[in-house]
Amino acid sequence: MTRPNDAYVIQPLYVLPRDGKDNGLATNGTISRSVAAMQSWFADQTGGRRLRILAGTVATVRVGETEAQIATTGWYVRDRVEELLRDEGYADPYRIYAVWYDGTSTKTCGGGAWPPELIGHVAALYLRARYSVAGHQVDCSQNRYSSDGVTPGSTTSACCTRSCTRSALLRAARPITHNRATSQRTPLISCTPETRLGSLRPSMLDTTTTT
Predict the structure, then answer these.
(1) Residue 209 falls inside a structural domain
(2) Which domain holds residue 144?
(3) Please, what is the end-to-end C-alpha distance for the chain in angstroms?
């Protein structure tokens, strides 16, 4: 059955490589607080509009490859995580999977699609990524989480930015296909109110505003 154009939903996921340690971010409230803070910040920036996020318990998903295997994909960690999630049944063409990946990358702290050049369902944070930029060492495990569900941490703003890049694709109002043609080196768009609501059809926004 074809869903209506306004039925897109963001689903948060805590994703582990096959050999990864479960640090309990889905069960101890860490991701739920980050999601709540993202909603609060987004509503404040957009006059009360809210993202349509799947309610309920955040799922923990262990995928079928080791952390080292996934890391060998370099700039394409996001792409590989999406493929592995599809193998686990997370392939709904009308969902955006906001992924907290408890694994590493040697290139960046996360990745999002860049439609129309790079199409995908997953916006991912790489929670233990480490890499070097111009001789400066970046340790993504030092990024902060929201402590109260209201004040955004650095992981909250990063997740919002990557989810917003995915919203551009939703204007197409059709099932999403996968394309590995573009490197993750493409810069992410800024998560500004103009980007979110100006030129894009708000396919993953609730139709009502908060008061």
Answers:
(1) no
(2) 9-198
(3) 34
Q: Looking at the chain, which runs of residues are DSSP E strands?
A: 9-16, 59-62, 95-101, 110-111, 122-126, 130-133, 136-139
Question: Can you tell me the distance from the alpha carbon of 192 to that of 45, in angstroms, rounded to the nearest whole number?
Answer: 8
Report residue 7 CA to chain centroid gap.
Answer: 18
Residue type at 175 in one-letter notation: P
In a domain, 63, yes or no: yes
Q: How many CB atoms lie within 10 A of CB 43?
A: 16
How open is the CA angle 177-178-184, to the nearest 5 degrees?
Answer: 140
User: Considering only CA atoms, which of 102, 87, 104, 100 is closest in space to residue 178?
Assistant: 87
Domain count, the chain: 1
Question: Is 35 strand, coil or helix?
Answer: helix
pLDDT, tens digit, 9 for 90 and up, residues 190-206? 333 333 333 333 444 55
C-alpha–C-alpha distance, residues 1 and 13, integer Å: 25
Q: Give the span between the Cα atoms of 4 and 200, in whole angstroms.
A: 17
Average pLDDT over residues 5-29: 91
CA distance 14 to 62: 9
pLDDT digits (tens, 9 = 90+) for 66-98: 999 999 999 999 999 999 999 999 999 999 999
Do residues 142 and 168 lie in contact, with contact meaning Cβ atoms separated by under 8 Å?
no
What SS3 class is residue 70? helix
Task: Report residue 12 as tokens.
Answer: 């948060």
| pLDDT tens figures, 32-72 | 999 998 888 888 888 888 889 999 999 999 999 999 999 99
